[in-house]
Amino acid sequence: RAKYSIMAYVNSDIILSDSILASIESVSKRFDKFLLVGHRWDIDIDEKVNFNNKKQIINFWKIAKSISVQHRCTGIDYFVFNKDLWKSIPDFIIGRPGFDNWLVWKARRKLIPVVDASEEMIVVHQNHHFNFHNLKVDPKTNPEEEGESNKKIHGGKTLNILDSTYKLEGNSVKKKNNKEFKV
Length: 183
Hints:
The chain is of the alpha/beta class. The protein has a 6-stranded mixed beta sheet with strand order 1-6-3-7-9-10. A 4-stranded mixed beta sheet has the order 2-8-4-5, with no helix packed on it. It has 4 helices and 10 strands, in the order ββαββαββαββαββ. It is globular.
């Protein structure tokens, strides 16, 4: 039902910089169909940031670049894709381990370019507790029932950011020629 041909899914604890628009434009000029993913950078945020205040925005990104920690390649908190990329998606529990990695696997299986935008897009994850939805611990590191449900659904058919076939460098999309990804 989406109006536009390019869609994005972003977890609610993610802060995107304005570089996302240029990244999407570069990739959509190169490919008719694609899946754009990338690393997130984890950071503790203790104060409110007024994103309408240019000075606070500049300061926020300066701090984020200096103290955030890159998350491992299996955790993917944003996807940009063509709205008709998947005809159907299994009944995964979104936000729990495995659903994101299946999306990368499925795109690769369909020979759709998977583009890693980690070097160009600054994507910050706000560290937080898990005292909601009856969770006791981080479901990414200690999967509970919902994570196990996703595991049964994907049956090990998962890939991660390192399995991308292309990477975004500046305004260019380049084929990955190293052995960083699976064939």
